[in-house]
Structure formats: C-alpha cells, structure tokens
Amino acid sequence: MKVAEAVGRALYAAGVRQVFGVVGSGNFHLTNAMVAAGSRFVAARHEGGAATMADAYARMSGTVAALSVHQGPGLTNAMTGIAEAAKSRTPLLVLAAEVTEPRSNFHVDQEALARSVGAVSARVTSAEDAVTEALDAVRRAVCERRTVLLNLPLGVQALDVPDALAGESALAVVPPERAPVEPEFADVEALARVLEKSRRPVFVAGRGARSPGARDALVTLAERHGALLATSAVARGLFHGDPWSLDVSGGFASPLAAELIQEADLIVGWGCALNMWTMRHGRLIGPDTTVVQVDDDASALGAHREVHLGVTGDVELTARRALQTHDANRQAQQGEQAQQGHRAQQRQQSRQGSRTADIGASIAARVRWRDVSYDDTSTRERIDPRTLSIALDDILPAERVIGVDSGNFMGYPSMYLSVPDENGLCFTQAFQSIGLGLATAIGAALARPDRLPVAALGDGGAMMGAAEFDTVRRLGLPMVVVVYNDDAYGAEVHHFGPDGHPLETVEFPPTDIAAVARGYGFEAVTVHTRADLKAVEDWLAGPRSAPLLIDAKVVADRGAWWLEEAFRGH
Ligand SMILES: Cc1ncc(C[n+]2csc(CCOP(=O)(O)OP(=O)(O)O)c2C)c(N)n1
Ligand SMILES: [Mg+2]
User: Fold this and answer.
1) pTM for the model
2) Which of 29, 177, 235, 323 has the highest CB neighbour number within 10 Å of its CB?
3) Where in the chain is the domain with CATH 3.40.50.970?
4) Ligand 2 center from residue 480 Cα (angstroms)
C-alpha cells in the first residue's frame, strides 16, 4: 500500500467524510482512496469554490470537512477560501499535493502560503509516520478549531507503507471533540454579580454560541435577568422565534434593535468578539454600559474592545454555572426575606429588566427590518432591493439555508430574509471577499439537504464565482440563486461616486445573467418588478428539477447604510 492510499483510508477512519476539490495528478490517488473508503467527494470547477464549499459545509454541519487540491496552482487558487476559513476558525483540512523540487513549474512555498493566511501548516514526511502525521492534522483541525494545510509531497505519497502499518490505517480513531472549557468559580461569581446589578441587560451571542445547548442555556439565563437577546451576523437565527430577540446586533441591526442595545446598562458578549461590525465601532455601547465577554479562548477576551469583565469558559457551561449561582443566591435571599416578613415576590419582579410590556410590544411591531417603513424606490424597470427581499421572504419556504456574497447588496438578504435557526445563514465574510457566495450556498446546501438552499449574490460576485453554477446543476441541488444586479461593483460606486471620481472602472454594461445561468442548465427569470416574481412561485410549486436563478435588476441610486460602516473601517 502506498502512502497516498494509507492516508486516504486513515482520514476516512478519523471522521473526514466530506471532501471537496479539484483533482489533478498530485491528489488523484489520495482522493480516490478517500472515496474508496467511504468519503463523499464533490468536484468543484474551481479550487476557490471548493475551499468555500468545504468551509460552509463544516460550519453548517458542525463537522470537519476536507479540501483536496493539486500542488502549486491548485493550492494558490484556493487561497482566498482558505483565508476565509482560517479567519473564521473553521475546522477544515486542506490536503495539498506538494513538489519539493524548486525547479518544478508547480513549486511554491506552500508552508508560507498557509502561514500568511493564518492556517496551520503540516506535512507527511515518511512512509512510517505519514498516517500519524495525517491524523494529527485532523486532531488539530477539530480540537483547536483551525484550518490545517496538510502538505503531501509527491515523493512521500508514492512510498510503500510498511506492511505492519498498512492495516492500522483503516483503524484510526475519530479524535475527540474539543473538551468544553470550565470557567473559574470566581469569574462565574463576578458574572453573576454584574448580572444581578444590571437593570437593562442585553446578551449578544456569537460564533461560539452556535449550538442548541448554548442557546437554551442563554435563553434561560436571559429570562432570569430580563435580558434582551441579540446575535452577531454569523450566529444569526440562534434566537429565532424568541419574543425578546432583537435579531442581529451591529450594522445590520434595525433602528429599534440598535436603540435597545444602546440603552443597555450591561452587554454580555457570549462567544462573540464584539468587533467593529457587531458593535458599530463601539457606538452601540452606551457611555456607562458595563461590557462583559465570555469566550473559551482567553486570547479573544478584550481583543476588539475593552471589557470590564472577561470570563474564560465555554458559553453553555458558563451560562449554566451563572444560572446555578443566581438560583442559589436567590434561594438564600428569599429565605432571609421570608424570615424578615418581606414578600419574596417583590424582588422577583424587579428582575423584569428590559422585558417590559412596552418593549415587548415594540419588538413585536418593529424589530424586523421588513416592518420598518421605507419609501419604495421601485420603477417599471428596476425593483427596490428591499421590496425584492421582503417579497422573497414571503415566497420562499421558511426552512431555508442562505449563503450571502459580499457587496453593497449584502445587507438586504442578511437582514430581510428570516432564517429558522443558527444554521440558516452561512456568512462567509471574515475576509470580506466577493465571489464566495455561490460556493457558500453549495456547501451549506449539502450540509442541510432538508432546507431550501438560497444563494444571494451581487452581479459582481455572481460573475466571479460563476464556474460553480455548473456544480449546482450537476449535483441537482434545488437551489434558488438571487442576483441583486445593479450592473456595477455597487460598493465601489457608492464609495467613490459622491466625491465625483470617474466610475468607468467599476460600472459595466448590462450582463444577461439569466442567459448565463440558462447556459449552465438553470431555469432563469429576469425580474424588473414585483409581478415578475410569479415565476419564482411557479418554480417552487413545480418539480424543481433544475435550479432557479433570479436576475433581479435592482435600483441602485444610493449606498446601503451598513456600507458606511465598512468605509469607516478602512
Ligand atoms: C475578491 C475581492 N475583490 C474585490 C473586492 C472589493 N469589492 C468589494 S465589494 C465589490 C463590488 C461587488 O459588486 P457586486 O457583487 O455587484 O455587489 P454590489 O456591491 O454591486 O452590490 C468589490 C469589487 C473584494 N472585497 N473582494
Ligand atoms: Mg453589483
């Protein structure tokens, strides 16, 4: 048995069940060995697409995924997606063939590439150690939540594995999940104290809170303290359906949500970086607001903003410990009060916190963007992107999983399309790259075959990632792709236009993206007005045997408000 085969078998045995990639001579045997062992392989048309599919799959399934690429250009093509995954701490294993001969055309310093984007670099070095080294790469991806590049030199791949070791490759064990970090007792006490003192607390949950267990613990703790609930964009949907949910905090927050977060006297970030996006460069934090951050990685505490209290701990565990502490204190207090003849009830009510009838009614009436009134700027030729998004929210089934690209348009689907839970929006925006949206939706669709996959793209991002239209059709994914088409790199137009700069480099003559999609085997509709969306209803009612692309000609006479936030950041 060759190293390539032994490593492929061992990776499957270690739990790597889903592989994306583009196969060349260097990763042919390895990929085939994984398929032979039982892994599912999805061929993308570009390594950039494959990388983001794997990233999105890992995020939406909560498991490790793999990317398999050819040496040199196979890897450089994938680098943008790898950077996105590394910044997002996605457990992703990148399997790259490698040439060690510097005069080879394929030679680049692959280790340096990985390092430059924040990925871990590893290598198989010998027939004796290859399987162990490969398994260690899986372990690091899973337990350290890292994107790991495993370089597989062609010379090593072709070596014979000693017979005694060959059998062992199929017996590799799945590395244990990362153990939840237990918070220090004193930190939990301190957290319980600030919660107790707070009159208007808001919880903001981030990527580290994306699990049903963490959600349940946070919902219960929030109830005790009368806290309102919000998320960062990557955790959107976590509190879907909760009457005290403000949806997203940050640039995408509705006016009411922003107002209520600003009025908080305590903000607790749970597995959330509280970065410039989520906190609007700090403007969502009132001058006297206490800021607390809970994260299982101590280096994340205070990394983006000063915090009054930082707790190192797993989100769910810390919330449960805070709850236990609170309940124990409350019981003790009630005991004392009963002795002193007070009615315990009085104190219980003071923990209403932010959950007053008025605030509840306001949230119900206008926390959703679609309930915020606006002047519809639609014409007979172009549809207002808000009108388009609200209509799609009505038409598309609620059980959906959405991938969003970057650009001026990106807030519309991110804010107006509701999602059922934390696995409803896949937000691959840590690197702020355009062109990742379609591949994001493909990876998410494969992780959640029970949901309608939706890709929301700008025309720029759609054309950049267009190679993967083929993958959508080939896989038979019943996907809806909606293109917010303004015939421009709208983000740049709105960035530079107001200052009178020439815009020829960022504006394009109309592209018939519907025709492009039909060429790839999609059904497609060009949308000018709300009435044209009838075709979407027809498609939903039908067999959905081909994916659907909506080329929506959108009004683009102003920059989106969340974009101003981005420009502030550069
Ligand atoms: C890979 C990459 N190239 C360039 C940019 C700069 N950029 C940011 S938004 C944008 C325009 C995107 O256009 P489109 O997809 O049509 O969305 P729109 O802004 O028009 O809504 C560009 C070029 C980027 N973020 N990433
Ligand atoms: Mg555009």
Assistant:
1) 0.96
2) 235
3) 3-171, 374-568
4) 18
